[in-house]
Design a protein that fits this description.
By secondary structure, the protein is α+β, with helices and mostly antiparallel strands. It is 20% helix and 48% strand. The chain has 2 domains: 111 residues, Sandwich (Immunoglobulin-like), CATH 2.60.40.10; 107 residues, Sandwich (Immunoglobulin-like), CATH 2.60.40.10. The chain has a 5-stranded antiparallel sheet, with no helix packed on it. The chain has a 5-stranded mixed sheet with strand order 2-10-9-4-7, with no helix packed on it.
Length: 287
Amino acid sequence: MARSRLIRFLLVVSLLLTMFAALAGHAVAAQSVTGTLDLTTQFPVLRGKSGDSYEFTVSLTWNGSETRNFDLITTLPPQWTAKLTRAYPASEIASIRMEAYRDYPEQFELTLAPVSWSQPEPGEYVATLEARSGDLKKTIELTAAVTAVYSFVMTTESGNLNMEATAGDDNSTALVLVNTGTARIENITFSSSKQEDWEVIFTPDRVAALDPGVTQGVEVIVRPLAGKTIAGDYMITLRAESKDYSPDPLVIRVTVLTPAFWGWISILIVIAIIAGLSVFFWRLGRR
């Protein structure tokens, strides 16, 4: 009889211990998943020109019941780079340690930039940042919105900013336009500032469109006014303009030479004067 009671007592104790262990295990398991992980940014989309870098401020919040190390993993578009840094102490990071029951976020900077040799086409380039610790993870998307770059340069074909000209003649110099941006530039027109009564003619007088990387040649005819332009140095200004972009104007020094015809006339006049003086003195000598 006593033995039977002892067996029942041991069975009850064993059952109670089993139930207590199950409840404790459930409590531990519940405690291990307690807490929230969050990854946020105030400005998930940043806009800039092609070639710019984009700096996102990101906040990581963890208020879990245990201290954890979170790996920070970025996934990038082709030919883009990323750098994660903390403001203090200033350093580049790849993971971060978050204390348990932390009630304030950890902030860091994620800088997205195209590789140095790349100039991205206009569009949206999406990168993802993931914070991961074991089974815990959180992902955020960050977008670099690249806008078009309108830019072109105008220079002389020779690189020189001076030319010689003869009054009354068509004096030519060659210009070159190069689209250095990422977008087509349309309707480029030309103008000039010059001496009164001079003519400056552009051929062609308008460029309908100039695509990125394309070079366009333009001939400029400079015609100083004959008979009123004396020999010397003059300045003219050449401009190329479009609604999207206008480069710096070119200031060209024009050295006007005496026409050959007038040179010969001057020589003949000098000869005539010398001959006349010779005859005059010869006649005086005979007297």
